[in-house]
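Lab notes, practical 5.
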Amino acid sequence: MLVASLHQGIADILPTRLSFYENWLNAEGLREGTIGLAPLYAVLSFLRQEGEAYQMITTRAGEYAAEWTVASMPPLQRAAIKAAPAWLRTRMLLRLARQLVRNSYTGSRAISRFRRGLASIDVRASVFCTVREPASQPLCGFYAAAFTRLLTLFNMHARAEVVACRGTGQPTCVLKVAMLNGQAREGLEA
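Output from the prediction step:
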């Protein structure tokens, strides 16, 4: 899912550069799911050299990943989540967000905690944050966009923000997700 969503994000944001990136994200590998870590790391490294386009592409890719995750769910599961009361739906969606992280890259894991309208999600071994030198900006925008879009698809208004990123030299990647549902949250600090 990660490779396909990145490919689609590149096609949307940098269509003239798509043929360059298809040297690593080739159609055969996309169909068969055989694109390995080295080509993925190469694509992410080159994307970071594209400046502002990196954030735009990874954000778009995260949104696609969330939409495709929901589209691939059995209809009964989607209906059960939508019908659940907000407090239970939040917990079900945090579980789904953890699954999305694991499905994006099998080496990644997410640990979530939820308290008083604020979720803290610790992403372990993010494929985006494996860099040689610390980056100046957080590299986990994919996850923030994916979590925000996932919750929105189930009528849970939320905003995710990266508060720590391993790619910038932090020990781990941490995202805060503020559940907004009808009430404005002042900030994500907590």
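Observations recorded by the TA: The CA atoms of residues 74 and 168 lie 38 Å apart. Residues 2-179 form a domain with the H-NOX domain fold (CATH 3.90.1520.10).
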